[in-house]
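Service request form, structural biology core

Requester: graduate student, group of Dr. S.
Request type: structure prediction, single chain
Budget code: on file
Notes: please return the result as structure tokens.

Sequence provided:
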Amino acid sequence: MPKVSSVFIQTLKNNNVDRFFCVPGESYLPVMNELVSNPIFDVVTCRHEGGAGFMAIADAKCTGNPGVAYVSRGPGATNISIAVHSAHQGGIPLVIFIGQVSRKNIGKMHLQEMDYTKTFSDMTKQVVEILDPEDLPNIISNAFKTAMEGIPGPVVISIPTDILEAEITSKAGNKLEVFHAKPNINDIQSVLAEIASAKKPIFVVGGELQFSKNARELLKQVTQKFSTPVLCTYEHQDLIDNDSIFYAGELGLRPPMPIKKNALDADLVICIGHKLNGVPNMNYTFPAKHQKFVHVLPELKSLNKLFKADISIVSNGEYFLDSLNKVEYTSKK
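Core staff response, request fulfilled:
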């Protein structure tokens, strides 16, 4: 029977992993040993786990696939936590593997033991500790699906040392299909009616749109169709050409007064892909109470959490833009 470490790296390969970032540690040496004899993807050895985490974030931003890092238990886990937090705030898909003490030592305050569920639960989409070797392939494949589905984000998987040394009957896990919500025609018609009646509508874009292959072109077409300006959220100003007549600025740190005015003078705000947490809401003053607010996000649990929307739509941002672009529209203004 193959060892878990062998099935582990094949499962990563099946999930389109071509590299991962790490600081080698004793709690996952079986994986490193396996890669010496079977180097099926690139291993980037880093000097610090924080660096490994941010390299994984950069990899995710460049490829659109989850960034992957593997770190050792205890200090390795806490060192990478800042990158995990950053990925959670920025909606970046990551799958982070963390070494753990052997199963017989869990819960006994063993050297460098941590309860990763408590440590990472509020900065991840999911935290899982593998306690049965046979579960490993399915848990890992589900982790990649979870990292990409809905609003992307980080998933942390803890693997005890003795799990990696065990033999396994389960085959390597395969890539699972990622579900993307789509708007219905009633959603689109409601938004069209609001745009038709608004005097100063504005689009606010960011978040999960950054990983869309077609969002930039669709956004260009939609803004031309409706002659509507676009505000980009913090760090997502590349979603529209900054030389475009429809680019209204970036809702970044301390935006200048003209950009604030673009945001607050609008009577209709259509936010696509971003939760409007943190920087873009200008200290929770935007969207304001006098503005109608349409919020489009790919998961229900994030809607109406920070701001109550007049229209809440559960949809992937690209699908929403595509539907809005395809529907017939005649301005009544």
